[in-house]
Amino acid sequence: MDVVVQIRKIDKSGNMLKGINFPFAVPESEAPEGETIKHYGPQGFLRASTSISRDEARSSSDGQQVFYKFDRAEKISPGTVVPLEITFWPMGMGMVLAKGEGIKLLVAGLFLSEPANDAKRLKEPDDENIGQHYIDTGGKYDSHLILPIIAGNRA
């Protein structure tokens, strides 16, 4: 099972916001959709079968940085719960929130940003998944999001 997480910036009404990755000739609302032009938010990806390849030597003990070698995978039997620690891409966390704005965490089994063009849009899944998949959260399956928060006024 592939798990994709994304943090989206939201306005005070809960609408998801987007930004532009580089100076562009038109406002964001008029720019074409696609991950090369628009920034939807920081993302992280992990295929559950590769979670056994965690690199303990490079991962931080506080859980803020988790690295994987991706040198092995292990098929997961139906009904097995696998803990997943997914790190967001480091360059995507420079999010500045204005008064009233917030964040929304999205969790999915597919890429959450728009592809650069239709040729890159998957016609069918690119994995070996079979059957239904569940994400267990809460209770004995502790789920949490660790974010570095830098508070204060910007001059």
Outline the structure in words.
The model has no long low-confidence stretch (mean pLDDT 81). The protein has strands spanning 2-10, 19-20, 38-39, 43-47, 102-108. It contains no helices and 5 strands. Helices cover 0% and strands 16% of the residues.
Tell the overall outline.
globular
Task: Report the biggest beta sheet as strand number plus sense, adding barrel if it closes.
Answer: 3 strands, antiparallel
Query: Total helix count?
Result: 0
pLDDT averaged over residues: 81
Measured as a percent range, the helix fraction is under 10%
Which spans of ≥5 residues are poorly predicted at pLDDT below 50? Answer: none
Distance between the ends: 45 Å
Q: Strand order of the main beta sheet, please? A: 4-1-5
Estimate the strand proportion: 15-25%
**Rounded radius of gyration (Å):** 18 Å
How would you spell out the order of helices and strands? EEEEE
- Secondary structure class reads mainly beta
The number of E-state strands comes to: 5
Topology of this structure?
Elements: E1 2-10, E2 19-20, E3 38-39, E4 43-47, E5 102-108
Antiparallel strand pairs: 1-4, 1-5, 2-3
List keywords for this structure.
155 residues; mainly beta
Describe this structure in a few short sentences.
This protein is an all-beta fold. Helix content is 0%, strand content 16%. The chain has no helices and 5 strands.
